[in-house]
Amino acid sequence: MRDHGKKYLTAAKKIDPNTRYQPQQAIELVKGAAFAKFDETVEVAVRLGVDPRHADQVVRGTVVLPAGTGKSVRVAVIAVGDKAREAEAAGADAVGVELVQRIKDGWLDFDVLIATPDQMGQVGQLGRVLGPRGLMPNPKAGTVTFDVAKAVREVKAGKIEFRVDKGGNVHAPIGKVSFSTEALGQNFAAFMDQIVRSKPAAAKGVYVKNVAISSTMGPGVAIDTTPYR
After folding, report:
1. Distance of alpha carbon 23 from alpha carbon 25, whole angstroms
2. How far apart are CA 204 and CA 190, in angstroms?
3. pTM for this model (two decimals)
4. I want to staple 47 with a disulfide (CB 3.0 to 4.6 A). Which of 10, 11, 132, 210 is the partner?
5. Which contiguous run of DSSP H or E holds residue 28?
6. d(CA 204, CA 200)
7. What are phi and psi of 156, to 5 degrees?
8. What is the pLDDT of residues 72-85, one digit of tens each?
9. Which residues on adjacent β-strands are paired with residue 64?
């Protein structure tokens, strides 16, 4: 166990570890227990009853958080011609096929990379660089598309990607501690709705096992999973 400081322990006293709270109450507790000097990110952790070793039980997807993420996202787009112009008009931070060479040379000043399908032959060369960082464009995530304008706008508006890890857990940011309880509640509801919809047909037994919410530095608060059963 990690050695927690006084501030963490004081914050943890406000939360009953044996109680599974309603989302609204849990969010208020997380906001009240946040003690860092910076605007902490609020994260959700979901334990799923799936075995990710089987391809038909891998849970992944995207969701646009209605209240945004509270973070400005830098978007790069690899496209040519009209598609490049559409991406620029939609607010992309860097656009062009020359980005392929720049990335090869070590440039990684972006959070999300979008590419049109006709450029994926070029982008494929970047697998070694982008793959381990989770930046490789992917059709399932909506980042390989000819509708680049929509993709850029969604990412800028608060679209996040999630994927189950080896232990059957999904982690996702749903905003900042400075957000109102209502805004965090909307984002949490949208995220959980998408998790429930992403249930693989091959998953047996209880699908949503545990849900907890916490801030970057604060203690976790368990949430009642009854509505997701």
Report:
1. 6
2. 24
3. 0.82
4. 210
5. helix 23-33
6. 9
7. -65, -30
8. 899 999 999 999 99
9. 159
